[in-house]
Design a protein that fits this description.
The chain has 21 helices and seven strands. By secondary structure, it is mainly alpha-helical. A hairpin with a 4-residue loop joins β1 and β2. It binds 2-acetamido-2-deoxy-beta-D-glucopyranose (5 copies) and calcium ion (2 copies).
């Protein structure tokens, strides 16, 4: 067995680590330690589940299955995989061949353990196990037996394992940490915060730079010298109309009131999407890992297909499908001079505390740049951030108020005049449990036994759930979370009432969270709520949901705040005729 198993390892790390590695700011104290094995335990569990199910589906040996999983990984990751497989492979073969199941296997491998005073975390029991008769051993006895089976493979007895210390996996962990840490474009030679490459906070997140050697050239700036000779704001419009001797920027855009659009948000705005094809043994294939590197370097977010900053087309249909619609696309349709003027300043796990820092990565110069529409959409993490006492870790209404005002003060100092800032209320996410709780999680599609309810509680037992208040079988806790979310929305309404006249450079707005309207609209047209929810985590809105939110938000703006959107540019057709796709994305 010389090939790598690490595709599975990678995707498991991804499954679990997005929140751990995506923790917003470095100075933030983690609210919990790695309890009961935490991310490593979740990763191991998914890995064993996938390998066992895949072997059953393909009727292949464990060695063949591991070889296959390695073979479908992108070539860049193979050396790490090889190293990981050398270490873990033999033990996995023994465990999977004896069909001990993910729960027992990962405790035997010591990636899962039980901290003093903690409950023992259990994941899934494969159906075959239930049918196997035999001595009725306790869980501890089963783990002990499994440990004995693999003992001769283990070089020395070990304590609890950190999966990132496994050879090979270490490199992958380092790569993930690096990818998840950046909040500024990593390729940005001229340091203007706009990039010529996609991932690592590049053009997937902010309009593509059209010169990475000039820091005065970037999307959203007012054209330099009217862009008579070159395109300084990357909207594809430049040159002089020979008939009139006027610049095209002046003629086609001058009176059009150009504006950009940005979002200050969390994983919903960044559009977190872990392809279920990575976890579901019935769907896994070579194809689904084709763009793994870019996906990871985008923090498993899809800002290029998201509600606020979606643009261009879907090049990744093997792992994400659905309509693309966004505020940016609609604002660009309204005035093509706004081409490429979008910024997605959102991060997984972000809340009102972290946003006070993250907002500093919004790139806007109050003198040189066009106005911008900024959506402040922190719709959940302020009620999501803690263990063991979830409620005690929630942001208080007063802190929400203060954090938000701090962020607005920063915007006051940096936004061009005539900008707009729209604060959005928090979501009541009880819909998640109500519509997902009894459905089967993709990691167990073939076995059919692991519901989202069980998945949520497993994550809570490991203290790694992205939101312990919503994603729980405890109805009392879900109600308490809803109560706090409403109090925090009320804090934002109060910020609006107190400060709507405080800032001369932007108009402040408040809108209620649009999710209930989006869901209502979907259900009215015959859909079901779960169809709008991300399958891998049972938490985020999926591509259909993202596009639907754009539509609902736009309608809200059009009817209640049309001044935000600016006029329709009568020259749009002429721009299209002269400048085609305006340089694309
Ligand atoms: C699975 O593979 C084994 C060995 O190659 C073979 O004997 C068996 O018939 C196969 N079972 C099915 C259901 O294909
Ligand atoms: C999508 O793919 C096409 C063709 O391969 C490429 O030209 C284009 O740049 C890609 N777009 C994005 C946003 O990746
Ligand atoms: C923005 O408006 C303020 C107040 O009206 C004014 O003092 C300031 O000069 C303006 N800034 C720019 C860049 O026009
Ligand atoms: C939660 O709130 C809903 C709606 O107010 C109510 O119907 C339900 O009984 C509550 N559940 C619990 C466990 O308190
Ligand atoms: C449900 O959550 C509430 C609030 O955190 C807690 O007081 C209660 O003990 C929990 N119930 C169970 C059965 O865990
Ligand atoms: Ca530049
Ligand atoms: Ca231009």
């Amino acid at each position: 067995m010389s090939k790598e198993l690490s595709s599975a390892v990678v995707l498991l790390l991804l499954l679990c680590c997005t929140r751990g590695f995506g923790a917003p700011t470095e100075e933030r104290k983690p609210t919990h330690e790695n309890i009961n094995g935490g991310y490593g335990c979740a990763a191991c569990t998914a890995l064993v589940a996938i390998v066992e199910q895949l072997a059953e589906i393909k009727n292949s040996t464990v060695v063949e299955t591991l070889d296959y999983l390695c073979y479908i990984l992108p070539v860049e990751l193979r050396p790490s995989c090889r190293a990981a497989l050398e270490f873990l492979g033999p033990m996995l073969v023994v465990l999977v061949e004896h069909k001990v199941g993910p729960d027992v296997a990962c405790h035997a491998l010591t990636f899962c353990y039980t901290n003093p005073g903690q409950p023992t975390c259990h994941s899934m029991i494969p159906p075959l196990h239930r049918r196997l008769k035999g001595p009725s051993m306790t869980f501890e006895e089963k783990v002990l037996e499994a440990k004995q089976r693999i003992q001769f493979r283990m070089k020395k007895t070990r304590g609890p394992q950190n999966i990132c210390e496994v050879p090979g996996v270490k490199d992958i962990c380092n790569w993930l940490r690096k990818a998840f840490k950046g909040r500024k474009p990593s390729v940005d030679f001229d340091n203007d915060m706009f990039s010529i490459s996609q991932g690592l906070r590049g053009s997937s997140w902010r309009g593509k730079d059209c010169s990475d050697t000039s820091r005065n050239v970037y999307p959203g700036t007012k054209p330099l010298a009217e862009d008579r000779t070159f395109d300084s704001n990357c909207n594809g419009i430049f040159g002089v109309n020979k008939k009139t001797a006027r610049s095209y920027e002046e003629e086609l855009c001058g009176a059009s009131q150009p504006r950009g659009v940005a979002v200050l948000g969390d994983s919903i705005s960044a559009h977190f999407h872990m392809p279920p094809q990575w976890l579901d043994a019935t769907l896994i294939s070579e194809k689904v890992f084709e763009h793994l590197i870019l996906v990871v370097e985008n923090e498993i977010d899809w800002p290029m297909l998201s509600t606020v900053t979606g643009h261009g087309k879907n090049n990744w249909t093997e792992v994400i499908t659905g309509p693309i619609d966004s505020l940016y696309l609609r604002i660009r349709d309204r005035n093509r001079c706004n081409h490429r003027d979008y910024q997605n300043i959102a991060a997984n796990g972000e809340d009102s505390i972290g946003m006070q820092n993250l907002v500093k990565t919004l790139a806007r110069n109050p003198q040189r740049d066009h106005p911008i529409i900024v959506l402040y959409a922190l719709i959940g993490n302020d009620v999501c951030n803690g263990y063991p006492d979830t409620v005690a870790h929630m942001t208080t209404p007063q802190a929400m108020y203060d954090n938000t005002v701090n962020t607005l003060e920063h915007l006051h100092a940096t936004l061009p005049n005539n900008s707009h800032v729209i604060m959005m209320g928090l979501a009541d996410a009880r819909i998640l449990y109500n519509s997902m709780g009894h459905r089967i999680h993709p990691v167990a599609t073939h076995w059919g036994h692991f519901t989202y309810g069980q998945f949520y509680d497993f994550m809570n037992c490991l203290q790694i759930s992205p939101c312990s208040g919503w994603l729980t079988t405890n109805g009392t806790l879900r109600n308490l979370t809803a109560e706090r979310a409403e109090e925090l929305s009320e804090a934002l309404r109060k910020v609006y009432r107190d400060h709507k006249k405080s800032y001369y450079n932007f108009d402040l707005h408040f809108i209620e969270n649009p999710m209930p309207n989006a869901v209502r609209e979907w259900v009215k047209h015959g859909g079901e709520a779960w169809q709008l929810i991300e399958p891998s985590d049972g938490f985020h809105s999926n591509q259909i949901g993202q596009a639907l939110l754009a539509k609902v938000l736009w309608r809200e703006f059009e009817t209640k705040h049309p001044e935000i959107l600016g006029p329709v540019n009568p020259n749009n057709e002429e721009i299209g005729r002269l400048f085609g796709n305006q340089g694309g994305y």
